[in-house]
Amino acid sequence: MKKSIRLLMVLVGLLSFSSSSFALSESEAEDMADLTAVFVYLKNDCGYQELPDAQIRKALVFFAQQNRWDLSNYSSYNMKSLGEDSYKDLSGIAISNSQKCKALARDSLSLLAYVR
């Protein structure tokens, strides 16, 4: 009886571990924060104020779905802090703002076209 209980406990532990392994990882959360920072930068520093926040949110979810990321634990990360750090990093890149804006727009605005 004790062996079957131990075996059951081990199986439950393994199942709970394996199911949590599909949740959003720290690096994936950082990638989401980086992409969010790109859109915020485009809005605040590149003249794209007209980008609707709802469309940006849809693009972020679309990006996560395309990468097969499980967002069920998204709220367990301090996304505001991660996003602020990403925005500071992006702002600190030592190239002209116009070059930075062109590159960011070229590489990320197409994502918004998928979620219109």
From TrEMBL:
Identify the stretch annotated as signal peptide in this record.
1-23
The superkingdom listed in its UniProt entry is Bacteria
List the keywords (alphabetical): Signal
Carries keyword Signal? yes
> By its UniProt entry, which InterPro entries does this protein fall under?
Chap_lipoprot_PulS/OutS-like, PulS/OutS-like_sf
Determine if Transit peptide is one of this entry's keywords. no
Q: What is this protein called?
A: YacC family pilotin-like protein
Origin organism of this chain? Candidatus Pantoea multigeneris
